[in-house]
Amino acid sequence: MRGNNIGMAMFSYPFIDPVVFRVGPLAVRWYGVMYLLGFLVAFFIIKSELKRRQGPIPAQQADDLLFHLILGLLIGARLGYTFFYNWESYLMAPWEILAIWHGGMSFHGGLVGMLVAGFIFARRRKVPFLELADIGALAAPIGLMLGRIGNFINAELFGRVTAAPWGIVFPMGGDLPRHPSQLYEAILEGPILFAFLWWLRLRTERHGEVLAAFVIGYGAVRFFIEFLREPDPQLGFIVYGLTMGQILCLVMIVAGMILVACSKKHRQVKPVVNTSNNLSSIKSHGQGGLS
């Protein structure tokens, strides 16, 4: 009876060709397009926030900051996948570590890579690292959403078997319907997390709090969705029924809480003052404040 219920509940995977178009041997894939769109959106968000804050670097340098973050993301994501998810395989063929076109990227590794790249950038420009990190955190959720949509198009990283009416039979997931966990993550890690961070940025008082909110928020969302997501086949469950992704997310949550505590020791964010309204603000005895 349960098998019949599952069969009645399922949807067939709406096949989408992962290749947008081909030019000879060159194939442009939707997953790559999603990365490109994510970088473009990140550029405009970073530039807009730099203008609003009037620093810590000129808005014209947004492309330079983004370049460093992209480089850190690609290197960190690849190395993270190598060490966290498939170490034995790459140990046998270490040259495959450079073959990023074969797939295999880790968000947790990418996050570490971006933080390292951002720290180096901040040190070279002699600007507050945590303030730059807050700005970068604002740009991350939309990129995450687009990346998860790319996973769905590739029919990869699907969820566990389910009897839910929206379960989907994925081509590489057997005959039973599964949670479209890629779409769960796209919604929760994308627009919902972004909306919260966008709201928080106008109310935070310390550098690092937006970054901490992102780290904790992503870690919590990903931790719980992993209960619905199929574990990585080469790893399975690591300990106490938890996946590698969940273990890394617990580390993220703890790190975010530590960052919240540390951010209280940093100076207040300098409020952005609209100079055209300075006179009226003085006359009204300080109606301004954080924008």
Walk me through this protein's architecture.
This protein is mainly alpha-helical. The protein has one domain (16-271). It is 58% helix and 4% strand. It is built from ten helices and four strands, in the order H-E-E-E-H-H-H-H-H-E-H-H-H-H. The chain has helices at 2-9, 30-53, 62-84, 87-92, 107-125, 129-153, 181-200, 209-225, 244-263, 278-283; strands at 11-12, 19-23, 26-29, 168-169. A hairpin with a 2-residue loop joins strand 2 (19-23) and strand 3. Helix 2 packs antiparallel against helix 6, helix 3 (62-84) runs antiparallel to helix 5 (107-125) and helix 6 (129-153) packs antiparallel against helix 7.
Strand content: under 5%
- The Rg value, from CA coordinates, equals 21 Å
Instruction: Report the total helices.
Output: 10
What's the count of strands?
4
SSE ordering = HEEEHHHHHEHHHH
For the record, the count of structural domains works out to 1
Based on Cα principal axes, name the global outline. globular
Instruction: List the strand order in the largest sheet.
Output: 1-4
Largest sheet: 2 strands, parallel
Poorly predicted ranges = 1-5, 271-291
Mean pLDDT: 83
Distance between the termini: 58 Å
Structural class: mainly alpha
The helix content, as a percent range, equals: 55-70%
